[in-house]
Every structure is written in structure tokens, then in C-alpha cells.
Amino acid sequence: MKPGSRVLYLGAASGTTVSHVSDIVGPDGVVYAVEFSHRSGRDLLNVAKHRTNIVPIIEDARHPHKYRMLVGKFPLKANQPSGMVDCIFADVAQPDQSRIVGVNAEYYLKNAGHAVISIKASCIDSVAAPEVVFAKEVDTLRKLQFTPREQVTLEPFERGHAMVTAQYRYSCTRTFPFIETLYIELQRSRKPKNSPISIAFVYNRIHFYVSQ
Length: 212
Hints:
Layout: E1 6-10, H1 16-25, E2 30-35, H2 38-49, E3 54-58, E4 85-90, H3 97-108, E5 109-120, H4 121-124, H5 130-143, E6 146-153, E7 161-168, H6 172-175, H7 177-189, H8 199-210
Parallel strand pairs: 1-2, 1-4, 2-3, 4-5
Antiparallel strand pairs: 5-7, 6-7
Helix pairs in contact: 7-8
Pfam family, one: Fibrillarin
GO cellular component, one term: small-subunit processome
InterPro entries: Fibrillarin, Fibrillarin_CS, SAM-dependent_MTases_sf
């Protein structure tokens, strides 16, 4: 996160930490703050009244399609696709937190964007050792197309807590698997290309745009 960044904050609660993120991104950035609890949401709305770069969203982060009309409706940065964010900050304290981050990333996180995840071991598995829980969550992130970058425990300030940062890589073959299949078939057959726009050209163009 840096000045001008667009951040999707999952688990915004009453907006205390969201306000710090708001300070980091500054007036040129925006924080889409998602909170499920209506009670905490009221406090979040009050915080947003005094911080114009916070967009409060009272909704369940498990269903990102429900707030697709809100994310991206803030003035856009130059050359940034509508609806895409630079970073997801997750503090939802749910057993399926990594999955929640993954599904939101599919909707809103730009390619090579980042995620910052607060992992509370006891909220995921109250029996297993925190180190085991952290390792399992990191492995889940890898399966969701994230590359873990750093892991920091919050000892001695918070027991059983860790912060994990990861980078998102939305592969072209995952998004357009049929293009990959056609490209492989074209390479195998080596038949003349009848179309002026070859399958290889289409594949390369899609790969270029997705990798931006």
C-alpha cells in the first residue's frame, strides 16, 4: 500500500484500522471497507463521513458479487481498469478466510496485486498449534494463485496471530483455458492458418492484457 492505492478491506469492523489505511493511501487513493455486522457498520459509516476516501460497504465478504456495483465507482487512477484494486487487506477472522480472500481476488484484485492477511489461528483451528495453522493457510493461498512474500508473527503483542503478505498472479490459462487448448492443437497440427488473426496471436494478446 502506498499513496494513491486502491484497497479492498475485508472485515472493516468499526473502522479503526481502516482509518490508518485511509491515511496511508491518502486523498488520491480509496479504501473499499467491507463489514458484515450492521452494528459495527454504523460506526464504520460514521468514520466514512469524515474520510472521503473510504467507501463503506455493509455486506458479507463471502459474496463479493453483491458489492460489484460499488467497487470501482470512485474516481479512477490513470490506466487502471474499472473495478480493480491494488491490494486486499483481510481481517475477517473466519475459518475460510483464505477462500474469502481468493474469491474476492478473482473479482477485484489486479494481476500482480497484493494481499495482506491477518491470520488468527484460534479462529481457524482452536486445537492445532498456531504454526501449523499458519502453514496450512499459506498453502491454501498458493492454491488460490497467490505467491506468499512475507510472514510475521505478532508475538508478544498478540498470541497466535500472524500477518502474511502475498502477490496475486492470475494466469492466462486459468482465465481462458480454451485458448490454451486451441493453441496447443495448432502447434501440434502445424496446419496453415486460414484466418488473418491466428490463434497464436489471440493467445498472445490475451496473455499481454491479463499480465498488465
